[in-house]
Design a protein that fits this description.
With about 170 residues, the chain is mainly beta. Helices cover about 10% and strands about 40% of the residues. The protein has one domain. A hairpin with a 6-residue loop joins strand 8 and strand 9.
């Protein structure tokens, strides 16, 4: 029986020598982990857009443009007399500092308040993006302008509509 025990011990020793990985230690590695927490966006209206009073000249003509860009430059086209104090729309967006915000500003249908079948298209002039200069309050203010086209046949009256902006992180 001693020879048999010797043979088993020899086989075990040879197996351990032939498969050294069976006795190797486990491998470990580290990796970094992070999270970027950003404040939710808040968008608020500070003042509405006003193109002022517009008087149509007599005669027959088309496509006279009244324009107020977002920097406040006002233009009153030929065949028009403009009066009043035009003002750009003002908005405020707040969120997390140094993030870029994309502004979506679709055109607006202005409806004649005396005759809802009469409309004008207000083409908005808004910034495509804004970089937030601070986190949370007070936020970053920005302006939106716009332009309309008038014809000699445009119905008189007050035209109004709603500007619908969307702000989203880039």
């Amino acid at each position: 029986m001693g020879k048999w025990l010797f043979k088993v011990a020899m086989v075990a020793a040879l197996a351990a020598a032939a498969f050294p990985c069976a006795m190797a230690t486990a491998a470990t590695i580290t990796a970094s982990a992070s999270a970027n927490v950003i404040k939710p966006l808040t968008l608020s209206s500070l003042q509405g857009l006003d193109l002022g009073g517009i008087t149509l000249a007599p005669g027959s003509w088309n496509n006279a443009v009244v324009s107020l860009n977002r920097t406040g430059q006002f233009s009153c086209g030929a065949n028009l007399i403009c009066s009043g104090a035009p003002q750009v729309a003002q908005f405020n967006v707040s969120g997390s500092k140094s993030n870029t915000v994309v502004i979506s500003a679709p055109n607006v249908t202005l409806t004649n308040q005396g005759d809802s079948s009469q409309t004008l298209l207000l083409t908005l002039d808004a910034p495509a993006t804004i970089t937030l200069t601070n986190s949370g309050a007070p936020g970053t203010n920005f302006s939106v302008g716009g332009s309309i086209k008038l014809n000699s046949t445009t119905a008189d009256g007050t035209y109004s509509g709603t500007i619908n902006l969307t702000a989203d992180y880039q």
